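Board notes, transcribed. Complex of a protein with MGD.
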Amino acid sequence: MAGLAASFGSGAMSNSMDDVAKQAQAFFIIGSNTTEQHPVFGTMLRQAVRQRGAKLVVADPRKIDITEFATLHLRHRPGTDIALLNGLMYIILEKGWEDKSFIDERTENFDEFKAAVMNYPPDVVSNTTNIPVEKLYEAAEILAVNNPMAVIWAMGITQHIVGVRNVMDLANLQMLLGNMGKPGGGVNPLRGQNNVQGACDMGALPNVYPAYQPVTSPEVIEKFAKAWGVKTKDEGGRVKDELTLSDKVGLTVTEMIPGILDGRIKALYIIGEDPVMSDPDTNHIRKCLSSVDFLVLQEIFPSETAVYADVLLPGASFAEKTGTFTNTERRVQMVRQAIEPPGDSKPDWWILSELAKKLMDRISDRVQKDAPHAGWEYKSTSDIMSEINAVTPSYGGITHARLDAGERLQWPCLNAERPGTPILHTKQFTRGKGKFMPIDHVPPAERPDDEYPMIMNTGRVLYHWHGGTMTRRSEGIMQVYGEALIEVNPDDAERIGLNGKTHVRVTSRRGSIEARAWVTDRVPPGMVYANFHFPEASANELTHASLDPVSKIPSYKITAVKVELV
Ligand SMILES: Nc1nc2c(c(=O)[nH]1)N[C@H]1C(S)=C(S)[C@@H](COP(=O)(O)OP(=O)(O)OC[C@H]3O[C@@H](n4cnc5c(=O)[nH]c(N)nc54)[C@H](O)[C@@H]3O)O[C@H]1N2
Ligand SMILES: Nc1nc2c(c(=O)[nH]1)N[C@H]1C(S)=C(S)[C@@H](COP(=O)(O)OP(=O)(O)OC[C@H]3O[C@@H](n4cnc5c(=O)[nH]c(N)nc54)[C@H](O)[C@@H]3O)O[C@H]1N2
Ligand SMILES: [Mo]
């Protein structure tokens, strides 16, 4: 079933927030600052712990707010999640806590996986992770005997050179314990941007069309060529390459921008991203953006990136347009226009269609105008939804009319008669049997040394949103959190002589920032934590563009730095 193709690949939650919060006997939150970054779900989880006694294990180097509710907090070294997980699975196997019938009936490759895990006995793991052996046993027991147990993660797991391996190892854990395909269990990555799930579902990825249909597949190319009226054969019936849709896998953002300096990218069209704030190694980004021949930026506010744009296109904000967002649990939700867009600004889909039509004029000889979805002639977003229904199997039955009537739909929803799918993999995995993967620990790309002896971890705070283009415009928010703060452990504060002084300078191999220190044991000794909400002290001046080889996500969470008094 093509619609199910997006299991681990697309990174949607296998379960729903509701069933996880109401039915899990235990939660394993690993690398998610849930109460600050997903406050609604965070509240549901806190209630589950307080009101019905669900157990909670948090694995996070920082003492984030949710650890106050935790049965157990594992404060491991950043970048050692695989060692930690393998260590927990070693203990689960040693104690015979694995779900033998699930493993037999629903999975394969168990023996190879087990052999890899056997290299992670508790004492070795304790050394790598800095977690005492007793705590490893305690955690393994909580996670294994409380069934079902839901795994929940976010960027603390994925933003590493081993991001994909981390996720695979979490899938191993859930298969080992038989926690897949049932309410209260599952693998639950919390997606970040309000519609990042929808963007991925619609093929805003370099390798797939909507619903994760590969751009390299001849049948898929044929299907979309037919829908869009792209002639794949010339008059003589010969297949002509330049007439077909491309079967080449494109570049990720983290490849495009450096690609400018290699001459691979000549022009950029950026919609709703602020790479000067959000991409790693800002100096390098500035250099790339200064060298690109032509840059179009579609934004709702002037951003740090706007300085580099040749053309600015004013987009309308979420409150000024109608359409759908798809959230982290694959639920498609209507967003209705509440106010008129100011000035000349227009909804992003409208700008994009007008641009596309102008480009289409130049290739009109290659387009069959009577094809069902040729020509970008949308009058509203419900026209776009009709096209989505036709070419995107998992969204086949998700229409504006059904959503308007109050139906709550989670994909896959193959047709108008079906109700949607709250839980994936109930009977089998997308590929049939779930495959255990042997995964080994790999040290981070950058490690502390004599010159840069500390680690900088980065992320967000409750009050701000990424580059802060939106939240720094809100007076109330600025009153509560009006400048970048760098979390510094009290031991380190004393060592660098912060006593009475307020500001620190944090320097990496790529840059330096100065900001006020927040002396707190939220961070362990040897680690500082910085955000990227303020241009005058953005963590990304310091980060590096080491990427996960598969997902190409930057390793934002581990940068070697030195910390000094200003
Ligand atoms: N208020 C607010 N909410 C947001 C956002 C925002 O900007 N502001 N952004 C949204 C977006 S796009 C996203 S992607 C999400 C991000 O949501 P999160 O991923 O929850 O946010 P981060 O701040 O990146 O924090 C990740 C957590 O991982 C921990 N961590 C760091 N290194 C490691 C490690 O090596 N191993 C483990 N296990 N943990 C580690 C950090 O201490 C932190 O608690 O938030 C979304 N929600
Ligand atoms: N150091 C470090 N860096 C990180 C991360 C980290 O944890 N650490 N996290 C990374 C992650 S997970 C993410 S998601 C990125 C986020 O990085 P970005 O996506 O670059 O940041 P945002 O601020 O969410 O959005 C960019 C712009 O979109 C504009 N915008 C808002 N709504 C609309 C709209 O409707 N239409 C248009 N056209 N524009 C709009 C906003 O004004 C904003 O300037 O940052 C990444 N960078
Ligand atoms: Mo994100």
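Residues 1-10 have pLDDT under 50 and may be disordered. Residues 81-95 form the longest helix (15 residues).
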